[in-house]
Design goal:
Elements (H helix, E strand, L loop, with lengths): L1 E5 L2 E4 L4 E8 L8 E6 L6 E6 L6 E3 L7 E6 L4 E6 L8 E8 L12 E4 L3 E6 L1
Parallel strand pairs: 2-11
Antiparallel strand pairs: 1-3, 3-8, 4-5, 4-9, 5-6, 7-8, 9-10, 9-11
């Protein structure tokens, strides 16, 4: 199984970025998928999740209204559209395939497969 993120980079505060994730070696359409992030000195946190059955989405309060998660099962791809970026959004962003449903696992213990991460840096 390979999970690969792309799209990170350096952006000014208030700007936008779109992260992408492609997964191979698994039945992508049967997995709930999530985005996590880890800032320096902080724990890795789940910021968004999308279900495979109903495409129901979940967001952490810190990104609600600014970030949007989506998926394209035909392309085995997951996306995170980030707008209104803030310096506190600076982190490594990880794509993850979950063992079970978004609603059952909100932490790292629910992850079956991880990507390698992509750096997002938001400057003032």
């Amino acid at each position: 199984v390979q999970v690969v993120e792309s799209g990170g980079g350096l952006v000014q505060a208030g700007g936008s970025l779109r992260l992408s994730c492609t997964a191979s070696g698994l039945t992508f359409s049967s997995y709930d998928m999530a985005w996590f992030r880890q800032a320096p000195g902080k724990e890795r946190e789940r910021i968004s999740c999308i279900g495979w059955i109903d495409n129901r989405t979940y967001y952490a309060d810190s990104v609600k209204g600014r970030f949007a998660i989506s998926r394209d099962n035909a392309k085995k791809s997951l996306y995170l559209q980030m707008t209104g970026l803030r310096p506190e959004d600076t982190a490594i962003y990880y794509c993850a395939a979950l063992y079970s449903r978004c609603a059952l696992y909100s932490g790292q213990n629910g992850v079956q497969y991880w990507g390698q991460g992509t750096q997002v840096t938001v400057s003032t």
